[in-house]
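Budget justification, computational time. The allocation requested in the original proposal was used primarily to generate structure tokens for proteins on the priority list. As evidence of use, we reproduce two of the resulting records. The first is shown immediately below.
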Amino acid sequence: MSAPILRILSITLCQFLSAFIWVAVLPAADMNPGIPVGSKIPAFEAKDQKGVVQTFESIRGPKGAFLVFYRSADW
């Protein structure tokens, strides 16, 4: 390989390793995981896939509810 390509690859590798190390050393306390396990969820309103506004009370059944949140590719 030529010298400019090796230089670009080494710079890119250094940037990747720097980012990886930065994330690896962040203390867990600095990360906000959200609601603690076992706590009650706060009141919320959100539109479902059909555009209808839902609350926890409107979706909860006799055995509770299982909520799954995910980020889609078009957010």
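The second record produced under the same allocation is shown here.
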Amino acid sequence: MDKIFYNEGSAARLGWTPEWFGCKKFNHNLITSIEKFQKDHSIVADGLCGPSTYRRIYNERVAN
């Protein structure tokens, strides 16, 4: 699976940006940042911002 391609599609569907994970572009740094976020939140660290990861980061952003 092309993780960059997946994350670009996920962002287009769900409305998130790489900045949510402290990155500027859809690249391998973003994948690493997503994996770190996932590990820190006990989510399977696959580097993909799917529905579970999106809900978690979205809720954190709304709370702040």
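A brief technical remark on that second record: The chain has one domain: 3-59.
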